């Protein structure tokens, strides 16, 4: 696959994670809390797409990233796969709650922990795998991966404090600390979909998909 096509597919998948995760959160919140409204089935469908987009974005970038760092490229795929697995664990908990509301008190904490360790923590690991390669290869403007490097430790702090009971997952401090990593993923997705990789960093032969 030509590198620029891979970049644009990855960018589209990054943006798909936002288009699925945000409405899924709104749809499943009433189900988890026991209030009226919401839709567990639609939320689950969106989160299945979210999990697929997580893995897909890493797999499609693997052939490009491994030219600069095999460990980082493979680590990125593994990290994204772990994130997707935790999302799927949350989906199972959500659908079980919808089918058996009496299990809510047991399964809602399981769902919340999966959400915290998956979308609430793993994006920091993703960034620590991906940003050094992007910086080294200059595949995108440097300020984009630098934003990821800033956001990764902040998200790790947020997850650690949340796990220790310092503040809630949906609290204002958690949202503020998560903002840089969210901005990094959003801006990376927009850049890759819109412009692809920096052509100066990619050999012409790889732009066409010809053999190296």
TrEMBL record:
TM annotation in the entry: 42-65, 86-103, 115-135, 147-168, 174-194
Keywords: Membrane, Transmembrane, Transmembrane helix
Domain of life according to the entry: Bacteria
Name the record gives this protein: DUF4386 family protein
UniProt organism field: Nakamurella alba
